C-alpha cells in the first residue's frame, strides 16, 4: 500500500481504516478503473482479516520454523495485524505453532494521526485509540509473549509530515534503523518511502552490514557486530531491540546495494 495511491489525506485514512475494520468512514468500498467508487459485492471482512486467512492457508503445511512478515507504508500495519491474529489463533488451539512469525520487518511504516472510531476505547480512558497505539499494543504482546524480532527501517520523513504519527514511543521497543537513501534527492520523499522495499530485498543477497561507532576524538571504527538488514540473523535483531541504541546509516548512502553499507550505533 503505497503513498502515491492516495490523492489526499482522506483517501489515505480511508485505506488505513480498511486494514482494521469494515466500519471505517467509507466501509469497504473500492475504486473502479474510471475513478468512481463501488460497494457492490464489497468484502464482508477487513483487509487484515482477509490477509490473515490467506496467509494462514498458504502456511498451513509449513514446517520450516522460519516465518517472516514484512510490510511497507500502510502494509506495515497489515503485517502486525496478521501476526496478532496468528498468535491469537495459536493460543486458542486453532493454528499450529509453525505459523508464528519469527520476525516482523516494518519498512518505512506509516500510521496517521488522530483517534479512530473503528478502533474504539480499548484503554477505557474515554477516547478512541490511534492506529500507532494499537500497533504498539500488538507488537508489545508479540515481543513479550513470543520473543519476536522486530525491526523498523525509517527511510523517509513521511511520518514527520502533516498527517503522519511519528510514534516515537515505539522506536524504543524495536530495533530502529535510519536508512539514508541519498541516491534520491531531498525532495524525492515518495521514492525514499517506497524504495526501502527494494533495498531490503536486495540485502538478502549480501552479508549483513557492519556496525560502527565513533570514539571521543571522532574516529570511526568497526565494533565487530552486525547492523540490520534482511540477511541479519533474528538473534542479532533481538539484541538490537530496546531503548538503548538506534542505528544510523553512514556509508553506502549513494548505492542501492547494502553490500557497502555501514551503520553507526548511537544512543537514543
Explain this structure to me?
The protein is built from seven helices and ten strands. With 268 residues, the protein is of the alpha/beta class. It has one domain. Strands 3-4-5-6-9-10-7-8 form an eight-stranded mixed β-sheet, sandwiched between helices. Strands 1-2 form a two-stranded antiparallel ribbon. The longest helix is centred in the N-terminal third of the chain and has 18 residues, at 74-91. Mean pLDDT is 93; it is low at 1-7.
Keywords:
268 residues, alpha/beta, eight-stranded mixed sheet, two-stranded antiparallel ribbon, globular, disordered N terminus
Query: What order do the SSEs take from the amino end to the carboxyl end, as H and E?
Result: HEEHEHEHEHEHEEHEE
**Assembly level:** single chain
Low-confidence stretches: 1-7
Computed CA radius of gyration, to the nearest angstrom: 19 Å
Order of the strands making up the biggest sheet: 3-4-5-6-9-10-7-8
What is the typical, i.e. mean, pLDDT? 93
- The number of domains is 1
Give the N-terminus to C-terminus distance in angstroms.
30 Å
User: Can you tell me the overall shape?
Assistant: globular
Q: Main sheet, how many strands, which sense, barrel?
A: 8 strands, mixed
Let me know the number of strands. 10
Strand content: 15-25%
Number of H/I helices: 7
